[in-house]
Amino acid sequence: MNKPRRVLITGAGSGIGEACARQLAAEGAQLILVGRRREPLERVAALTGATVLVGDAASSAHWADWAHEIGDIDALIACAGGHGLGSATRTSDAEWQAALRSNLDSAFHSARACLPGLIARAGSIVLLGSIASLAAGAEVCGYTTAKHALTGLTRSLARDYGPQGVRVNMVCPGWVRTPMADAEMQPLMAHYHESLDAAYARVTAQVPLRRPASAAEIAELCCFLISPRASIITGASLVADGGSSIVDVPTLAYSQLGALP
User: Is residue 149 scored above 90 in pLDDT?
Assistant: First the structure.
């Protein structure tokens, strides 16, 4: 009888991290959930039977404290992240450091701490990037820079640890309906006096599929990448944005001339 997979998920208290936990628990995996807020983690743990580690994924000291409890694992899904709003001239030193810490340092420290256990089981890592890993939105300098850097981290880890059997990939979602994205809809809702659904429709109006992803849809991709079905895939950035990154922005004006036959 095969042993259940042991999977560690950061940022597991809500959004994509929670969705990954739910799916993997349904598949019989043993889970370790990492996050800064105890209450959401324990709520997810009650549904999944997971072990909870409360702390900052960007802290090497916390990872050192958790080493014994983590042990050998089959996969790491690094979902921890945060904001990084403002243009360069409107980003303070503290805001810049916070953007890098929450989005880049958290992934680096998670991967570095888990690699010994992953090497032991020829495991797999998935880092949660963004379409901000591929292109720049307006006035999100810290976030865009950190998410771009995750591409380099993914490739570096894949290059260095592939010979030891460890695969490393990145998922790059567009808009996903999560509590974090809901908060980002608030300025649009206030400005246009519209509902949350209408705000999501507005930000995906030029996305080919015309909708945001669900957290469960992105979790499907993360779980695929850590599965044996993806055994030859490493160093890849899997874009899951409803097609937004394929849109030729300079031609958007022509889309108003009429629908295609």
Answer: yes
pLDDT bracket for residue 159 (50, 70, 90):
very high
CB 150 within 8 A of CB 112: no
User: Can 143 be counted among the known catalytic residues?
Assistant: yes
Listing DSSP states for 52-90 in one string gives EEES-TT-HHHHHHHHHHH-S-SEEEE-------B-GGG
H or E, element range at 30: strand 30-35
Take residue 218 and report the two structure tokens written for it.
């992105």
Given a contact cutoff of 8 angstroms between Cβ atoms, the answer to whether 2 and 27 are in contact is: no
Catalytic one among 143, 161, 192, 200?
143
* Domain-wise residue ranges, the chain: 6-176+212-257
Give the model confidence (pLDDT) of 185-225 as tens digits.
999 999 999 999 999 999 999 999 999 999 999 999 999 99
CATH of domain 6-176+212-257: 3.40.50.720
Q: Environment class of residue 189 by beta-carbon count within 10 Å: exposed (0-12), middle (13-18) or buried (19+)? A: middle
The continuous run of DSSP H or E covering 188 comes out as helix 179-192
CA pair distance 224, 216, nearest whole angstrom: 12
Token pair belonging to 31: 């889970």
8 A C-beta contact, residue 219 and residue 22: yes
Q: Can you give 108-160 as a three-state secondary structure string?
A: HHHHHHHHHHHHHCCCEEEEECCHHHCCCCCCEHHHHHHHHHHHHHHHHHHHH
